[in-house]
Amino acid sequence: MPTGDIEIKVKTAQLLNSCKKLPFEIKDFVKKTEALRLQYRYLDLRSFQMQYNLRLRSQMVMKMRDYLCNLHGFVDVETPTLFKRTPGGAKEFVIPSREPGKFYSLPQSPQQFKQLLMVGGLDRYFQVARCYRDEGSRPDRQPEFTQIDIEMSFVDQTGIRSLVEGLLQYSWPSDKGPVEVPFPSLTFAEALASYGTDKPDTRFGMKIVDLSDAFRDTQAGFLQEALGTPQGTVKAMCVSDGAKYLTRKDIEHIRKFAADHFNQEVLPVFPKASRNWNSPVAKLIVEERGSGLMRSMQAQEGDMLLLTAGEHSRACSLLGKLRLECADLLEAKGALLRDPARFSFLWVLDFPLFLPKEGHPGELESAHHPFTAPHPSDVHLLSTEPEKVRSQHYDLVLNGSEVGGGSIRIHDAQLQRHVLDTVLKEDVTLLSHLLQALDYGAPPHGGIALGLDRLICLVTGAPSIRDVIAFPKSFRGHDLMSNAPDFIPPEELKPYHIQVAWPTDPEAEKSSSGDPRHPES
Amino acid sequence: MPTGDIEIKVKTAQLLNSCKKLPFEIKDFVKKTEALRLQYRYLDLRSFQMQYNLRLRSQMVMKMRDYLCNLHGFVDVETPTLFKRTPGGAKEFVIPSREPGKFYSLPQSPQQFKQLLMVGGLDRYFQVARCYRDEGSRPDRQPEFTQIDIEMSFVDQTGIRSLVEGLLQYSWPSDKGPVEVPFPSLTFAEALASYGTDKPDTRFGMKIVDLSDAFRDTQAGFLQEALGTPQGTVKAMCVSDGAKYLTRKDIEHIRKFAADHFNQEVLPVFPKASRNWNSPVAKLIVEERGSGLMRSMQAQEGDMLLLTAGEHSRACSLLGKLRLECADLLEAKGALLRDPARFSFLWVLDFPLFLPKEGHPGELESAHHPFTAPHPSDVHLLSTEPEKVRSQHYDLVLNGSEVGGGSIRIHDAQLQRHVLDTVLKEDVTLLSHLLQALDYGAPPHGGIALGLDRLICLVTGAPSIRDVIAFPKSFRGHDLMSNAPDFIPPEELKPYHIQVAWPTDPEAEKSSSGDPRHPES
């Protein structure tokens, strides 16, 4: 048909079904709101783009299964989704059972089951697993999502990494160019220092540089002040062609972004710009160390530097965010920084095992989950300085998005009890079955989970994960087509021994009334 | 190792983990209760049988995917499990959302979604789909189960049937012998008349025979009486070697079974037995029509006949059950009727579209689901005599178990509305999205779902579907390993605006108290 060469002479025709006037034309160039597309999802699915996305997803997953199951001897095991709550599982949907007061929980991942399978001698497990997380309204999150879930016995980090590299290389669509392996890696500390984030987009440079030493005896007041504090640092980032492309308004936006989001000062410096936009402090800095700055930042004429000062991770995080803001701004002017046809994979390693628990000073929580094994070099710190212990967790990053994460797990029951009980102060009774299982000769094991929706979204270049899911929920968690969730007659709740606790707070009532289709458009 | 030929000389050894004394030995011949196996499932999984079952399951599903996806162009589409309740969906688990009074429901199957995908132009869909059904405590049922879910556009019954035959042939384990296609088929009416069930085990004969005409002028009182009523029939079944193998106690058991379960008389007749077990009526019958009976029943010396009289379907159902009872009894004595190595597939066709609604005289309900298309020859009866309409539903039966079911669907919105609204008197607003979708040029379509757990159970010869599921629930719906479902602190229910309605009925409280592990052992 695309050639126009085929003509059909119809002898007889039978009308199989008629079609009402469509609410929108099924053409990709016809713009429609996402709410309308989701309401008539069965029509939206007819679009070229949705057909392409779903068919590519199916094929890529099939290749992954082929790789894991046929080439590498993995066993596809289905694990339950009607499970029991996990400690701290406040984001787990609950399902009332027919026994009064007892609930199942929808698991956030098959984590416990995959570890139990290792204890059970199914030493290479995978599953394309449905997972559930109730995060309320968050853009680009789905209450149910899919992960490629993998676990192996007698494996180390390198083993998992090369398996996943091979998996992606094997399943990558041929028209998206070959995937080169092995993927580069950075430690968490390196990623933070150079990119200000644990998921750097390595398709472009603009790395963060530490200038603390260079500015040790500067006259510039705010740098002096920062360096005078015990944890003070000076950080800078070179925005390529920043002076060439960015407007005064853009630069104002950058400064405001830093003030609003980080409550922190950022100083644009034009070391060799024709534009005379340097502030008095920036001028002073250029006079003081102009050429040295140019050298250490590898800056070219036309570039802009962004300087900030403060505690290491705060300063890095700020510049990390500004790096992406600047990329957006530059690309809007026509510069090409992040080639959409390029796929830059990166492993990020050596995460901290614990983080300070938000809102509970002095307490710790798992940076990922409580089954993550500590870094072998740091085990001795577990009892004395747990906050300094690095983990055997690894993240897989693609073009600045986290597409996977995993770890070597704790296989020693004693150590697992210590982490849960002494460090995290969790209720171990909820996990007694897992602790017991480790006691029965659990092999060393580890695994990973790849976020399938996000991965396919990046491969297809779709603007949202909703474009690679056949029937997604809106960002408020609604199915705009069927209008789920919906009211249920009280008699249908009776067998489950629950009743609705209608809120007395009028705000909460308001948010639930009205047609849910419109507030989301 | 099985040869005993390999010896290992150890130079160094490292203890990776230690193992406590196991609660039972991991040997297939060591008998343990199912409750103990489920409590320590991670140990039970180490048994040869569980390893075999789960690995075979994984491989067979992989072959099915290969067949559907790679050989036949099907698209694997994941459909949501957080959905909205369906009309009459009293067996659907509910999931409270963060909006007061609103609930998601866990779907019993992706039925609506697969039909919507056909409207959406994904004309060949499959999914290994997780489904949910809350049937309380029923043996050999799981609250979550898996089906191979298939839907196609522009297809008829023959098309679906030959696809599924090819699918099973292709994925069948090579050590289980080849699968012969096409599978034989029976109409629902034929299956009922010959086997007294819609899922006959066709590995053995002992078919039901109608003897109404032969006994039209009998002197035997209870046959006379039955044939005197408008719907009266006389039915008989020949139990091969019944007179040879069965004891008086067995025969008493058979009569009691008929009386207890069907409140109906069954008459054992020994037309040419050396044993003198005939009752006076049986004697009369043998004298009246001995040789004719032998001929029409194809009975041999040593066989036993079972006679019953009454309304056609009742009489057939009784003999259908007794057929299986007798098979059990005969096999217990050493006869081989149902070869476990034989796989007898059978299609059952032309089911009724509607059945009388239980407990609502005069009303109808769908025999399968309301989207099933009527048989083309019976469409004209829809408005006048809907109870006589046959459907385009088909069941796949293997060795007497239903392993699949599907249908050609209604693709005409008008007809679908008529069925829902006028015939079934359902609340159509719950399905307005589907009705609307049919209006937009839905193609003719149909599909099937194969019950994967049951199928794998039959292939492996496992005694229960729990033996082909890695982490099954007990028949009371409990996870005996983790003790799910479990109590949840009230504060974790708050975001979902529900509270537990504790029963005031002491019976209900009793059933939920105590350790759930023991009542199930």
Automatic annotation (TrEMBL), chains A, B:
Catalysis: reaction(s): tRNA(Asp) + L-aspartate + ATP = L-aspartyl-tRNA(Asp) + AMP + diphosphate
What name does this protein carry? Answer: Aspartate--tRNA ligase, mitochondrial
Q: Where is this region: Disordered?
A: 501-521
Query: Mind listing the GO biological process terms from this record?
Result: aspartyl-tRNA aminoacylation
Which residue stretches does the UniProt record annotate as biased composition, category Basic and acidic residues? 507-521
Q: Which domain of life is it from?
A: Eukaryota
Signal peptide residues are none
Pfam families reported for this sequence: GAD (PF02938), tRNA-synt_2 (PF00152)
How this chain assembles, per its entry, is: Homodimer.
Q: Where in the cell is it found?
A: Mitochondrion matrix; Mitochondrion membrane
Instruction: Specify the Aminoacyl-transfer RNA synthetases class-II family profile domain's residue ranges.
Output: 54-489
UniProt lists the family membership as follows: Belongs to the class-II aminoacyl-tRNA synthetase family. Type 1 subfamily.
CC per GO annotation: mitochondrial matrix; mitochondrial membrane
Q: Report the InterPro entries cross-referenced here.
A: Aa-tRNA-synt_II, aa-tRNA-synth_II, aa-tRNA-synth_II/BPL/LPL, Asp-tRNA-ligase_1, Asp/Asn-tRNA-synth_IIb, AspRS_core, GAD-like_sf, GAD_dom
Question: GO terms for molecular function, please?
Answer: aspartate-tRNA ligase activity; ATP binding
Q: Which UniProt keywords apply?
A: Aminoacyl-tRNA synthetase, ATP-binding, Ligase, Membrane, Mitochondrion, Nucleotide-binding, Phosphoprotein, Protein biosynthesis, Transit peptide
The UniProt record lists the EC number as 6.1.1.12
